[in-house]
Specification:
This protein has 18 helices and no strands. By secondary structure, it is an all-alpha fold.
Length: 474
């Protein structure tokens, strides 16, 4: 195999294929993945402080989080469609710069409406970053190294999500809530400098068309209805009826110009089941993390420091395994590596179901580390699997679908866990009910990846599968 094999695809529209591997851009993708996922969780601990500072209710303060999450989820797919039409470098520089500026504006907020507006804008630029990260990593190296490259943002992203509460707690104790919006600036600056120096020239920006804005409204409304239903259901199950509009809104979007390309990419690549597995595993991970943190603080009465140290076992296992996940995918194939990772995660979660008040933190830590190792093995390979199987000209659309699946899982996981604990009872019994739900979601991810593998083998035997190339197709 030639040492300098060119990339099989160009970058986003207007970018030229690069003859060498650009690992600096892979690092930039990892840094952006970390801060984007960190921002989804670091604000949670600051909500009481924000409410006290602005003299607002807890429900209003919650929009400091929802204001970021809702546009991020709503704009992921339209952002993928837009990014397929513009240049990588221009879009990356714009998104990183504006994301950092919104962080500064949020930290300077003199009143609540200012803060919420800054978070809404940050969520919009965050959606662009979420789509750009896997595209940037995939297109910066040769196809045979794509598994290793994809493991960098796929590992650092969840690491940011898990360490967010820890970082937020330390900042709140020593500097106040405004600092949590500034902690990301050095990382954004580093990514910006790397992009300016190493990102290939080519392509121009263009404004999103009207159809993309309509698509964003439909997706945002569907997601908002589901999130509100799950959030309000613990107080009254009838609130679940709020989720009913999500189905017709999604069906209508799929028939529009913005939804048809996404459906086409999923059909052409045969990765609908893989995207569903990403959603299930992310939801199980988020629910598991939320429940265990609540159990340690509320039921066991552990300190914030003890809880943080216990929960850090998960990202530690993820980072250690993530270093090998990409290499294994490049050597043995993305599908078997991703499937193994999902199975290990499900097994680790299964071992946590008998959670009891007599367990010491170490009893939880080693099980979390095992589940985290599985997530590390799964993240990069499953992303490489989707990116490799997708049509080259629609790689950003494929990336946006994966990121939407993962983001939906992270957003819905805690809400599902809360609903499960209410129906399961109080104390440890409620936590166990939620852990059962989290494990079931992870097991469903394993099933979906297994079915995808068997389906692909069947179609290959019948000769209907096209050539996908790279180890990610194995």
């Amino acid at each position: 195999m030639a040492a300098q094999q060119p990339l099989a695809t160009a970058g986003l529209t207007g970018d030229q294929a690069q003859p060498e591997d650009r690992w600096s851009l892979v690092v930039a993708a990892g840094l952006l993945s970390f801060v984007a996922m960190l921002d989804m969780n670091v604000v949670n601990l600051a909500l009481p402080d924000i409410a006290d500072s602005f003299h607002i209710s807890a429900a209003t303060a919650q929009w400091a989080v929802l204001g970021y999450q809702l546009p991020l989820v709503a704009l992921l797919l339209p952002a993928g469609r837009w990014l397929d039409q513009v240049g990588t470098r221009s879009a990356l520089l714009l998104a990183v710069s504006c994301f950092a500026c919104c962080s500064v504006l949020a930290s300077l907020a003199p009143w609540a409406s200012w803060l919420i507006a800054a978070r809404l804008a940050q969520g919009a630029f965050g959606a662009v970053l979420f789509v750009l990260m896997p595209v940037l990593a995939a297109r910066s190296v040769r196809p045979e190294l794509r598994g290793r490259a994809m493991s960098v943002p796929a590992t650092l992203g969840p690491l940011g999500a898990v360490t967010g509460p820890v970082i937020g707690g330390l900042l709140l104790d020593h500097t106040g809530w405004r600092a949590i919006f500034l902690v990301k600036l050095p990382v954004c600056l580093a990514a910006l400098l790397i992009a300016r120096r190493h990102a290939p020239l080519g392509g121009r920006l263009r404004l999103p068309d009207r159809d993309s804005l309509v698509d964003a409204g439909l997706i945002g409304s569907a997601v908002a209805s589901v999130m509100l239903a799950l959030t309000l259901a613990p107080d009254a199950p009838l609130w679940l009826l709020l989720a009913l509009p999500a189905a017709p809104l999604t069906a209508f979007w799929l028939r529009r110009p913005g939804g048809r390309p996404v459906a086409g990419v999923l059909r052409a690549s045969g990765t609908a089941g893989v995207n569903a597995s990403v959603l299930c595993l992310a939801a199980g991970f988020a629910a598991n993390h939320y429940l265990l943190a609540q159990h340690l603080r509320r039921d066991d009465g552990d300190s914030a420091t003890t809880t943080a140290l216990t929960m850090l076992a998960f990202p530690l296992g993820m980072v250690l395994a993530g270093r090998f996940g990409g290499r294994l995918a490049d050597r043995w194939g993305a599908r078997p590596t991703a499937l193994t990772g999902a199975a290990v995660t499900a097994f680790g979660m299964l071992l946590l179901i008998p959670l009891d008040g007599d367990w010491a933190p170490i009893d939880i830590s080693w099980r979390l580390a095992l589940a985290g190792a599985g997530m590390g093995l799964n993240g990069g390979p499953v992303q490489a699997l989707v990116m490799t199987a997708s049509p080259p000209a629609q790689m950003a659309t494929a990336a946006s679908a994966v990121q939407l699946s993962r983001s939906l899982g992270f957003a819905l996981g805690p809400a599902l866990a809360t609903a499960a604990t209410v129906f399961g009872g109080t104390g440890a019994s409620g936590s166990r009910a939620g852990l059962v739900l989290a494990t079931t979601a992870a097991a469903l991810a394993v099933t979906l990846l297994t079915l995808h593998h068997r389906t692909n083998r069947t179609t290959r035997k019948t000769g209907t599968t096209g050539t996908t190339g790279a180890s990610g197709s194995r």
